[in-house]
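Might I ask for a little of your time on a matter of protein folding? What I wish to show you is a protein chain and, alongside it, a tokenised description of its three-dimensional fold. I should value your view on which stretches of the chain appear to form regular backbone elements. You will find the record immediately after this paragraph:
***
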Amino acid sequence: MFHHADKGGKKSAFGHPVCGQIILSIILLRPPLLVTAFPVNTVEEQICKDPGFPEHGIRTPSIGKFFENSVARFSCADGFSLKGPAKIICTRFYNGSLGWKPSLKPVCLSEDCLPPFIEDADVTNRTYRPGDSLIISCHEGFQIRYPDTETMESVCQADGTWDNQPTCQGCLRPLIPPHSYMNISETKFSVPVGTVVHYQCFPGYKLEGPELLECMYNLIWSDTPPRCLDVEACSLPPMIEHGDYTCHPHPCDRYIHGTVVEYYCYPGYSLANDYKYITCQYGQWFPQMQLYCVKDETTWPGFQDSLLTTWKVVACTATSVLLALLLVITAKMFHYKCKSQQSPSDEPDESRDPNILVVDGVAVPLPSYEEAISGNYCQPPNDLPPDGLESAQHSEEQNPPSYPGHTGSQNSVPLDTGDVENCDSLSDTSECLQGLQPSSSHPGGLNMSEKTNAITSMEETASTSPSIDIADEIPLVEDGEEDC
């Protein structure tokens, strides 16, 4: 219990009034020192941890302890640049602990600039020192562009970055109008010079504007993109009796622009004309023509079988005609061959007799065709020797033989100077004929009775008839008398 001095100048409990007041004031101002006891910080808690040294860098101070509010400074060796804060301070935080502020630890990096990645370009060098210029080449159809069009150069900075880094550009990907598509992938943001873009509209829309756009050398498009406008759909296509239609594309949900309708007829019917398609164009069917199915006049259930049967009939008919013609030709050829190759021995007995020509009642025997050709008439067949035969043939060639009725003519020449007698007078005619006619054993010769009758008739006629001159123009044998 404290006792204060009264107004009468009494002393306080401490013996002096002024000292008592000072002590009381100290106690009242510092109550925690007397009432509450806080723990005392250790030595480790009174300093900051060593921040270390950056690689290829320097720290100041390099040694010592860092108490509260101590400062550490950093720098890098030549050829490297500092990344991060250049100085840090040892600071006490709200929880009473000490730490570095800012907390980011600095590092020293190489000052060489790494090659940048530039789309649609190739970088020539792999490393660049500060102050070096970037060297690139753009792909074909792309052109180099710099952010700063006045500098037109990219330089490696001291901190390893590039200044005024360029890009390789083509024409920027054009816009795609609604309800349309084009032949450029959505992943491409630029296209090289010379690229042609083809625009097309979805079904039910028509294109308004240029269909093709080209990327020009100045990296702009040749024209503005087109638009796709909605068009009116066509109404139901006209129906046909005994037939139906189908749509392309199938199914026919809506007859939009470009829809094609194909007509067909039921079995037993066919279209009246060959055209069977109509197309929806801008809300109208084209061509505007009436299609209808007509009944087939003749149905062919098995067209292939009937076609084969028809060919069989035609082939059989042609074969029959050819065979008939071949038979006729063969028969005709055989007929001519038989006529040309028939021998005298094959003739009947009536034709074996020599032909006799009656002139003014005189029967004149004529030589056969073979005898006239060979020139052996009035020559005994087996009596002449070879020499006489040659002279007789020579005489025959110079002077033709005399016919009965010629008397003492200057053209009459002896047939032979040998044993053969001349036939100069009608009195010797019988003897001449008897010697000239072949024997009865020779084919085609006359029998004795026929010879006698012929000779008697000639002798009787020769005495009363004048000399007979037979013209040389009379044919010996008619060509048409020999038949097969």
